[in-house]
């Protein structure tokens, strides 16, 4: 099957998946999600006023009609207005999503890169003291609470009790210098809490690859450690690495950023989502939940294509 | 070695980039950064129901009245109105004149982009919006059934071009309000953010987005807002009114140390720019203050040991007093736990015997509740405990020392339970509702401990948790919660605003979440509510307070004490009570040095 036909087939199978995911998330939101009626009613509302509010919020419309409208909104990316602030949801997302990406990307990449380097190093020196040190430090890192890490780093790096080098909060980013200034401590926090998990993951992966026949053969041919790790180990472990990296992206954007955004006063999508949950802002929640689900489906789609390219066995099947 | 050099260079570069944010400049700061412990929702005055939204609304828009900056107890003073209203002899007709020449800020919503004059028609339009179902307004309850003809106006389709007898513009600068019955709290309600004046052009121009495009005539205008902060710029066209210490109720004895004398004769607003940071996490708020990234915080309780040299009254520790001012402010409201009296297990019953036993059970629960420990554990021991529901901030506060409701008597509670035939087997399961959070859970566990101490089986005290406050609020508005722990922040300094919490017609989904139904109480409420402050009214409210105590309606009460901390770089006296945001216009940095000296 050629690549184009493969893409078309995959895209067609993704459509029912998108419909199913959006239907389930919409159902949960409508019947089990937050209800803003009472918050919007002020004090001492009458039953008639509550009915008027439900009507204004569209809660009294049939489920199917609401779902079809929602699909239309998703298709056109006209996602309505936030119940809490009135801001168009699509503008809200396009304003906050890039901030969150810029916030978490350096920590995500560096955390993985550092984890990969440490993991490879530990695996190469398996059962030696260096491996034990890396493993112990990784477990310690995994035990660190994200909240405690953030508060400690803030105290050490951002206040007069420590070095007072960076701002405790803000996102007044206008050039690379200001970006680095605001992103430094959040990035360090993210690296510290993720590097343990990453190191353990990459170590296990490399140990498994190092035991394979083709690696032993390469060693027998006299391949040096760098060539062996980069050419024979890394290349063959790309599939699980990419899977981990790509599937982490939607989750880290929505959930991983919440704490950083709250503590560092950064106007990203994690905080917006949290506020929507606590404030019962259904238009924002529906959009975020559905777009996250769609993003995951797209990641899955991209993974299939990448597997096909990097793994001859998949291509052949 | 080379790697270390690179790291040092990168670190220096990162730090160097932020020089504009280094805190604690010695010169007068150009920006005042205010930390708020919540996030505002809508900035549309009609929907600004949270204290955070109101805080912004009263700075972006004008209200007819406001509270004097420094007066305690609080006193109303004209804001956009020329003077206090002329009130007819029967207390039902109010005539209010606006100051001429006040303008809305420039905005594309106006035909030529130039803000026009604020008129009486804007007030009429703004009030009507609260009764238009299309607005989703949250402040209409303040005036429900008050304005003559408003109910009919709404029923006829809420046509803004149709006049309402109860709220009319006699001319460009004169408002006439006609009430269905006397409502002495009306002027207080006109100081609320809900009563701010908005221009019809802007509401129609921005539609739903009016919430984030405020077009007002207040002292500030919005430059930007997101989930982390709002940036306000001084409104250069704000009316020029000289600051008068005496007019604002200055008390040199209590307020002399804040340097407010330097403001005399100057024209507010004084700051060119104000940043309002939304910081919900206590630790982040504290770190931000100490780093100089914000200049004001409500001090987290976890820091009291460090910040306070003594707690009652709160006194700043010497190591902080060089840099910060402190003000302790008593909350205008209370925290309390209502019994849902429609719940047959502990509420009203048709059977006289069960009715009596249920009442005794509620009284026993109240007697078993140790407010002092609650205060020490969760409110740092600086909250004010009192009997009934009238907090110390209202003039009707009962100082006679009747502490029956707030007294802790576990032995008495046990006796009451036994005397009324309750046994561990027959005691009903108590469902204690709360929104999910660590603190709320801890409060529940403490409550369970109190109840165990009076002989209540542990297994019969159960938590009823909700994912968010919105869900919790919806649940108890639907009568689905048995024990409702909540708080009430008064809208205005009048006991009527507290007593309406137990007025029968306000039963759930209204504010009377206890569903208290006592015809005698209701009769007294109807009698007292239209009265102006007087010894007779005080007596009525205190009688009603005693009724609530005798009927064991609610586990009351405690008013929290807020510890406000701000940098000495600023001359100000912050305020969180009764639409507290008004003080922002009086914040100044130019005279702060004088204050320090």
Structure characteristics:
heterodimer, A: 317 residues, mainly alpha, 14 helices, B: 597 residues, alpha+beta, four-stranded mixed sheet, 21 strands
Note down, in words, how this protein is organized.
The complex is a heterodimer of chains A (317) and B (597). Chain A is mostly helical. Helix content of chain A is 79%, strand content 0%. In chain A, helix 5 packs across helix 11 and helix 12 crosses helix 13. The longest helix of chain A is centred in the middle third of the chain and has 36 residues, at 89-124. Chain A is flat, with a radius of gyration of 24 Å. The mean pLDDT of chain A is 88. Chain B has 597 residues and is of the alpha+beta class. Chain B has a 6-stranded mixed beta sheet with strand order 16-20-15-19-17-18. In chain B, strands 1-10-9-8 form a 4-stranded mixed beta sheet, with helices on one face. In chain B, strand 8 and strand 9 form a beta hairpin. At the A-B interface, helix 2, helix 3, helix 7, helix 8 and helix 11 of A face helix 1, helix 8 and helix 15 of B.
């Amino acid at each position: 099957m050629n690549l184009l036909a493969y893409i078309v087939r995959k895209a067609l199978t993704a459509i029912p998946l998108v419909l199913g995911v959006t239907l389930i998330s919409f159902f949960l939101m409508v019947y089990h999600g937050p209800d803003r009626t009472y918050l919007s009613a002020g004090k001492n509302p009458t039953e008639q006023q509550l009915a008027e509010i439900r009507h204004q919020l569209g809660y009294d419309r049939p489920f199917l009609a609401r779902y079809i409208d929602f699909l239309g909104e998703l298709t056109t990316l006209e996602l309505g207005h936030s119940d809490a602030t009135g801001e168009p949801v699509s503008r809200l997302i396009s304003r906050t999503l890039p901030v969150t990406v810029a916030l978490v990307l350096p920590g995500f990449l560096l955390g993985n890169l550092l984890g990969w380097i440490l993991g490879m190093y530990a695996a190469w020196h398996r059962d030696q003291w260096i491996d034990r040190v890396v493993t112990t430090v990784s477990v310690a890192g995994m035990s660190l609470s994200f909240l405690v890490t953030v508060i400690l780093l803030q105290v050490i790096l951002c206040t007069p009790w420590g070095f007072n080098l960076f701002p405790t909060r803000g996102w007044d980013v206008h050039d690379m210098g200001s970006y680095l200034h605001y992103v430094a401590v959040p990035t360090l926090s993210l690296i510290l809490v993720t590097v343990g998990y990453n190191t353990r993951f990459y170590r296990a992966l490399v140990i498994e690859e190092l035991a394979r026949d083709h690696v032993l053969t390469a060693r027998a041919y006299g391949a040096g450690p760098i060539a062996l790790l980069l050419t024979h180990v890394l290349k063959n472990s790309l599939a699980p690495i990419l899977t981990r990296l790509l599937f982490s992206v939607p989750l880290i954007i929505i959930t991983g950023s919440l704490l950083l955004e709250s503590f560092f006063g950064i106007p990203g999508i994690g905080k917006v989502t949290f506020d929507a949950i606590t404030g019962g802002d259904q238009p924002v929640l529906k959009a975020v939940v559905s777009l996250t689900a769609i993003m995951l489906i797209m990641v899955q789609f991209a993974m299939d294509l990448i597997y096909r390219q990097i793994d001859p066995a998949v291509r052949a099947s | 070695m080379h790697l270390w050099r690179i790291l040092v260079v990168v670190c220096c570069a990162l730090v160097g980039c932020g020089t504009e944010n280094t805190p604690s400049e010695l010169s007068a700061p150009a920006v005042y950064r205010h930390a708020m412990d919540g996030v505002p929702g809508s900035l549309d005055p009609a929907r600004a129901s949270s204290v955070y939204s109101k805080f912004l609304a009263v700075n972006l828009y004008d209200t007819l009245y406001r509270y004097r900056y420094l007066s305690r107890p609080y006193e109303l003073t004209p804001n956009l109105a020329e003077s206090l209203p002329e009130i007819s002899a029967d207390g039902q007709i109010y005539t209010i004149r606006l100051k001429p020449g006040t303008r809305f800020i420039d905005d594309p919503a106006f035909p030529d982009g130039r803000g026009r004059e604020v008129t009486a028609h804007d007030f009429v339009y703004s009030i009507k919006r609260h009764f238009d179902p299309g607005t989703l307004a949250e402040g209409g309850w303040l005036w429900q059934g008050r304005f003559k003809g408003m109910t009919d106006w709404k029923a006829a389709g809420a046509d803004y071009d149709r006049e309402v007898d109860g709220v009319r513009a006699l001319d460009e600068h004169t408002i006439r309000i006609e009430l269905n019955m006397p409502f002495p709290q009306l002027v207080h309600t006109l100081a609320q953010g809900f009563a701010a004046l908005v221009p019809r052009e802007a509401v129609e121009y921005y539609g739903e987005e009016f919430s984030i495009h405020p077009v007002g005539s207040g002292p500030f205008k919005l430059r930007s807002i997101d989930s982390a902060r709002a940036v306000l710029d001084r409104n250069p066209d704000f009316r020029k009114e000289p600051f008068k210490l005496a007019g604002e109720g200055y008390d040199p004895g209590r307020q002399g140390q804040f340097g407010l004398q330097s403001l005399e004769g100057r024209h507010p607003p004084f700051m060119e720019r104000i940043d309002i940071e939304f910081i919900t996490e206590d630790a982040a708020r504290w770190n931000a203050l100490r780093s100089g990234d914000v200049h004001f915080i409500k001090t987290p309780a976890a820091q009291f040991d460090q910040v306070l040299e003594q707690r009652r009254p709160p006194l700043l520790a010497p190591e902080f007093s060089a840099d910060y001012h402190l003000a302790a402010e008593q909350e205008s409201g209370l925290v309390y736990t209502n019994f849902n009296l429609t719940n047959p297990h502990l509420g009203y019953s048709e059977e006289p015997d069960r009715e009596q036993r249920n009442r005794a059970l509620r009284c026993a629960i109240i007697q078993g509740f140790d407010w002092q420990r609650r205060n020490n554990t969760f409110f740092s021991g600086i909250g004010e405990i009192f009997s009934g529901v009238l907090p110390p901030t209202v003039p009707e506060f009962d100082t006679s020392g009747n502490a029956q409701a707030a007294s802790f008597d576990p032995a008495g509670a046990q006796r009451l339970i036994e005397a009324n035939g309750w046994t561990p087997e027959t005691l009903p399961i108590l469902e204690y509702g709360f929104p999910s959070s660590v603190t709320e859970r801890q409060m529940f566990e403490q409550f369970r401990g109190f109840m165990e101490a009076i002989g209540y089986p542990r297994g019969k005290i159960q938590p009823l948790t909700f994912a968010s406050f919105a869900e919790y609020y919806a649940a108890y508005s639907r009568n689905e919660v048995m024990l409702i722990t909540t708080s009430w922040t008064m809208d205005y300094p009048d006991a009527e605003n507290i007593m309406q919490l137990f007025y029968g017609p306000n039963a759930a989904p209204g504010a009377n979440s206890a569903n208290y139904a006592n015809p005698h109480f209701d009769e007294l409420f109807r009698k007292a509510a239209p009265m102006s402050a007087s010894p007779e009214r005080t007596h009525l409210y205190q009688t009603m307070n005693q009724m609530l105590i005798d009927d064991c309606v609610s586990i009351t009460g405690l008013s929290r004490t807020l510890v406000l901390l701000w940098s000495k770089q600023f001359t100000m006296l912050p305020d969180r009570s009764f639409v507290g945001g008004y003080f922002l216009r009086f914040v100044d940095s130019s005279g702060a040095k004088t204050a320090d000296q």
